[in-house]
Amino acid sequence: MVDSPAVHAFLTGHLGRIEGLQPVGHGEWSTAFYFTHAERELVVRFSAIDDDFRKDQRVRNLAEKSLPVPRIIKVGQAFDGYYAISERARGTFLEERDAAAMMRVLPSLLTTLDVIRTTNVDDSGGFGLWRGADGCAPHATWREALLSIATRPPSPRLPGWREALSHSRLAQHAFDIGYAAMQPLVVACPNNRQLLHSDLLYFNVLVENDVVNAVLDWGSSMYGDFLWDLAWITFWQPWYTAWSSLDIRRAAREHYAATGLHVPDFEARLRCYELAIGLDGLAYQAFAGKAEDLEWTAAHVERLASAG
């Protein structure tokens, strides 16, 4: 973990005079700071690995400005790891919006997911979590990627997650019944190979004037069926109690109908992905030692599993 004095010294050594250095305060796999240099508002992130930074670069290049992904200016080595300097995007985080504000931004959010869905990824291969170095993913099919969640959750870098999960009888039981409920639904999931963000609700979406202004941190990005990103929102929606009255499912279906997009087996696919995302959440929370979060997610996965 780097601190502000060390970061200030590093940046001034590389760039010269900087101003307004302040920690961002969010991020599981990196530490970030805002600063100003030569009248430009920038962000610097530090991480033990550079894969997430490379993925951000790749998505920015693939989207060719159609997606609001901040441009990375430089990636290099620092503090026994790596750093990336990028342009700063302005706005408030999606999680900070109440129900009315969330409803106002939903049209822009769903349109942004359309852009992600239609981004061309034909220059790479595979399904599931992809690598920043070459853009390729390890699985031959989307269904294979989904079923691999039992042994290899989508969240990267979770050594020892299964042993940690076994320490909670409640969480282990939820994982087992959630996976059992998910398996028969996989047959409804098409072998779509589309770009997925796969981490939309962890301070990774900035909104300004009810419009999505930036989609940040593509480190968890995968290739698969585009409904996965919608399921990411609907699975975690109950976590954000201010959104409890919203029918995001219905808003999405109306959006797809209005844009002429046929989405067969909508409910089966969405429920499959909600269960898979819940299992991924259990694996991550067990690994990170987040006991209260683990209990909430276990209960939510059990509700979803029994609802079917």
The number of helical elements comes to 10
Number of strands: 11
CATH architecture of the largest domain: Alpha-Beta Complex
The percent of residues in helical segments reads 40-55%
Strand content: 15-25%
- The termini sit apart by 44 Å
The helix-strand sequence is HEEEHEEEHEHHHEEEEHHHH
Q: What's the CATH first level of the largest domain?
A: Alpha Beta
The radius of gyration is 19 Å
- CATH superfamily caption of the largest domain: Aminoglycoside phosphotransferase (APH), C-terminal lobe
Low-confidence stretches: none
Main β-sheet: number of strands, strand sense, barrel status?
5 strands, antiparallel
Q: What features would you describe in this structure?
A:
- This protein has helices at residues 4-15, 51-63, 99-117, 142-147, 161-166, 169-182, 227-236, 248-258, 266-288, 291-307; strands at residues 19-23, 31-37, 40-47, 72-78, 81-87, 92-93, 128-129, 194-196, 205-208, 211-215, 222-224.
- With 308 residues, it is an alpha+beta fold.
- The protein folds into 2 domains: 4-87, Phosphorylase Kinase, domain 1 (2-Layer Sandwich), CATH 3.30.200; 92-307, Aminoglycoside 3'-phosphotransferase, Chain: A, domain 2 (Alpha-Beta Complex).
- A 5-stranded antiparallel sheet has the order 1-2-3-5-4, sandwiched between helices. Strands 6-9-10 form a 3-stranded antiparallel sheet, with helices on one face. A 3-stranded antiparallel sheet has the order 7-11-8.
- A hairpin with a 7-residue loop joins strand 1 (19-23) and strand 2 (31-37).
- It starts with a helix and ends with a helix.
